[in-house]
Design brief:
alpha/beta, Leucine-rich repeat, LRR (right-handed beta-alpha superhelix), two-stranded antiparallel sheet, membrane, transmembrane helix, Leu-rich_rpt, RLP23-like
C-alpha cells in the first residue's frame, strides 16, 4: 500500500508537468503558425542597406530576399507590429583576426562596415554581431543612438575597442 501511495505521489506531479509542457508548446506553435504580420517596408530597406556594407563570404545573409524580412536569417520581428526587434548575426565559428582561426581562414565571418541604416530599426532591442571579424574598425558612434537597444554583443568581433581592451588587459597582466 505504501508503494502505491509513493508511486501515485510521484506520478501525479509528473503528469501535471507533462500536460503543462504540452499546453505551452501548443500555445507557442499557434502564436507562430498564425502570424500574419509582415515586415515593415522602411525596416526591410534599412536591413538591405545594412547588408550592402557587409562582406558575407559564406552567403549566410543570402536569405535576405523577398518582402518579409521577418523570415530572414537572424532577423526577428514583433508578432503584433512587424517591427524588427532582434538582429542575431553572431557567427557560430570564432573568427577573430588575432588568432586566425580555422573559421577566419575559411572566410565564414561577416566583415565590412556597419551602416547607420540600423537607426531606422526604431524598435530594435537586441543586436548581436559577436564572433565576426570587423578587422579593427572602430565601433560606430551611431550604435549609441539606438534608443530601444537593451542587448548589445560585439564581443570577439575584432572592433578596435575590443583590441584596445585586450591590449590593456595583457599589459595589466604583465605588470601585476
Amino acid at each position: 500500500m505504501a508503494t502505491w501511495r509513493t508511486s501515485t505521489q510521484t506520478l501525479v506531479p509528473l503528469c501535471f508537468l507533462l500536460l503543462t509542457k504540452v499546453n505551452f508548446l501548443e500555445a507557442a506553435e499557434s502564436n507562430t503558425r498564425f502570424q500574419n504580420v509582415a515586415c515593415i517596408e522602411r525596416e526591410r530597406n534599412a536591413l538591405l542597406e545594412f547588408r550592402k556594407g557587409l562582406k558575407d563570404p559564406s552567403g549566410w545573409l543570402s536569405s535576405w530576399v523577398g518582402k518579409d524580412c521577418c523570415n530572414w536569417m537572424g532577423a526577428n520581428c514583433s508578432n503584433t507590429t512587424g517591427n524588427v526587434v532582434v538582429l542575431h548575426l553572431k557567427t557560430m565559428d570564432y573568427c577573430c583576426s588575432m588568432g586566425h582561426s580555422e573559421a577566419f581562414n575559411r572566410g565564414t565571418c561577416l566583415s565590412g562596415t556597419l551602416s547607420p541604416s540600423l537607426l531606422n530599426l526604431t524598435y530594435l532591442s537586441y543586436l548581436d554581431l559577436s564572433g565576426n571579424n570587423f578587422q579593427g574598425i572602430p565601433i560606430p558612434e551611431f550604435i549609441g543612438s539606438l534608443k530601444t537597444l537593451r542587448y548589445l554583443d560585439l564581443s570577439h568581433a575584432a572592433f578596435i575597442a575590443g583590441l584596445l581592451v585586450s591590449l590593456l588587459c595583457n599589459i595589466l597582466t604583465l605588470v601585476s
